Fold:
Amino acid sequence: MSAEQQQDLFSLFSPASGVHPSTGSGQARLVDVRSGGIVFERSRRARNYRLTLRRDGTAVATIPVRGSVREAERFVAQHEEWLERARARARGKPRVAEVWTPGTNLLWRGEMTEIRVATPPVDATGAPPAAPARPAVCLGADVFRVPAFEKDLRPALEAHFARRARIELPARTWELAAVSGVEVKHVTVRNQRSRWGSCSATGTVSLNWRLVQTPDFVRDYIIHHELMHLREMNHSARFWARVEEVCPGWRDAEHWLKRNGSLLGL
Structure:
């Protein structure tokens, strides 16, 4: 398996019984976009027709290598009710505010936390500093500099989160890899829009920087998941048995992600 044939995590919603879920690991090319916003993709690794709903609301019909667009359209028509239910569930999921200002609540370290204006320090006499303090906001005990309170704070805060992630996530990955005895060659932190993590057969683990916004047990589960893929590059029963060995609480972590992932824009 090449480095490009990576194991993806939570890149697509799983369909109901009878509609095969996608692991996101096959290579596909765009075939067509038809009425109703359905994207048709041909996958060289797919064995069956699949219908999935991405977290951005895009419905994807996957066509196996020997399949046809016409047959895929027939498959979609057979599963229209499932697609409508999936879209309704997606619309009902909580979403983070598009624009962040003081008072906005967002996920930080696994808790919904209000953005508060940081109070400037005072000296022993109670007098404010001689020079105006640079704008800063608080998320719990963490303080972050921002350009101005009047602007959308989201770009600045997400940049801060990503910088922290590039320090924290690789360090935690190396730590858990040492404990579980898995050899890792490289760890990257990326701005992935449709997955929490991935790994390659060459030993590279890639993680979504938004994991710093999740609880520790969720972050660790994603890391364990990718580490176990370095032993089993699939989602077989043997793979999940390995995950169970190193992360017995993985089901709780998956449940948290399904319930709260939309609050992280995924």
Remarks:
- The radius of gyration is 22 Å.
- Residues 5 and 25 are 6 Å apart (CA to CA).
